[in-house]
Amino acid sequence: MKTIKRHTSLTLCLLLFMVVLLSACSSDSSGSEATSDVAADGRKSGEGGFIANRDLTGRIFLEGDGAQLPDDQVGNPIALKIKEKTGMTINWQSSGAADGLQELTVALATGDLPDVIEAYLDHGGRPEMNVLLKGAREGLFTDLSPYLKNTKVLKNYLDPDFLPRDTKENVMFRPEFGGKVYFIHMNIPAKNTTDEDRLHYRAGLWIRADIAKALNVDPSKIKTQDDLYNLALKIKAGNFKDNNGKPITVIGPRKWGGQVTSTLFKNFDFGNGTQFDVENGQVKHVAETDYALKSIEFVQKLLKEGLLDKEAFNMDGVRAEEAYNNGSYAISSYMNIAPDSLTMFEKTKYLPMDQMENYKGETAIYEKEKSGSQVVAIPSTTKNPEQIIQYMDYLASKEGKALWNYGIEGEDYNINDKGQYIYTDKVLDVMKNNPGEERNTIPYFWGSLLGKTDVNNNKDFGELIRSANSQPERYKLYFELMNYGNPKYKYWDGYTAASYLAEVPDIEASLKPVLDSYKDVLVQAFFAKDMTEATQMLNDYRQQLKDAGVEQYEKYLQDKYNADPSSVVFYIDAFF
Hints:
Distance between the termini: 23 Å
Oligomer: single chain
Structural class: alpha/beta
Low-confidence stretches: 1-33
Strand content: 5-15%
Mean pLDDT: 90
Number of helices: 22
Strand order of the largest sheet: 2-1-3-12-4
Helix content: 25-40%
Radius of gyration: 25 Å
Largest sheet: 5 strands, mixed
């Protein structure tokens, strides 16, 4: 109880701090107006790409990502080139808060909103969706549907075959809004995307490459919890050291810090991270199955035998990443290979061990067929919202994407005879020798916030990853890891079990916090003195679920599943 009260107090203090912080920076973030509908060269709105002479203010709620913005957002050469073309530019505000959801909640509650906002949202079941929906229902956002049809790229959102099902039905074109669109889901792949155009991040367990080699272990052959346990025992017996010569711990936290990740006990991951699945034709919560106790028993064994770091579920991200840089863990319970994380893998090479069987015995790696992440909304207080949509449309065009991805042709990149975009030596020198300045040379993140959609880098620019053709040796490791072990993928599309919770508002308020607390119950059970105590904790949690209305929710999901099994996807990611 003391822990809960302390956490609540800290949360309230943080919320109060953010209210003060946001209020302090709100004086220049009110809805701005176009200063002129005529460009300096005489172009009028709609002529030669000109939209309006207008400087926008935006705010991002993406958990500390403001560090990726250029120092001068409106005066850097790329922004000036875009303004020359469109008449518009944007200055993004970011407090650098560690919790984008809390910051978003405070901003909507206080009405402290600029011209446009962007929040994290990779699927409709995310907690951000509930906060955004509340804002839409209370009239805080502009209906964007009238403006999408007058665009060249964004009109793809109106194509029934363009959007993934969850984005279309649960995020953008929700039936409750009767055709009105309050959110634009970003990072949507282009319609012509094929398997060869996909990046695979290989999210799951990873093992230090040198340890796998020393033990003559093929990570792609580790399939069961027994395989993982026996491997952990061999590693412990091997007395391996980190890069500084210090003894290692066998299994560590996520690369980003402590959190329960079901990849650690994938054989028992009923629901594959969604908490719900179908057993013998019946929709159940994982806590109502034997898989929950099996997961707890497995993790308890790892902890008691010193195979898993006791801080794996609460370590901060800075410490965790530093530990992986140093090779302090033989196995990561969860990491992935992303282009911006290559440096770590160059210091200490890890190999993906993500082909373990799920509870159904499947070894294919699940991925969403068409993903989406981040969401853009325009407050109802913003003047001339159609201009922002036109600005977004330009940034999402191939010409716009080329600018914020590659810079200015002839200065920052050239196009070879294969149609590949190749950075100039000037840019490559920054990327190689002063990577912290890349954001001031090529403002990728700045432009992607409003422009990254209808994405197919392979077809547009001749490479899956920016600069892969310019720096083939650097990305050789990335593609080696992406294809390691000849992985097989299984694609899914639709609503996850979590996405439907907003559809049952009579129990949502009571059930959601109980569902969210499952990971905390697991951690408490992991550290219980024995399985008897852990079982009692789980029984208590089952009663909480029942009291909060889980049976009503399961019936709702069951009816959906019975009517159309493809409408409920019992898979989302390796988190609870």
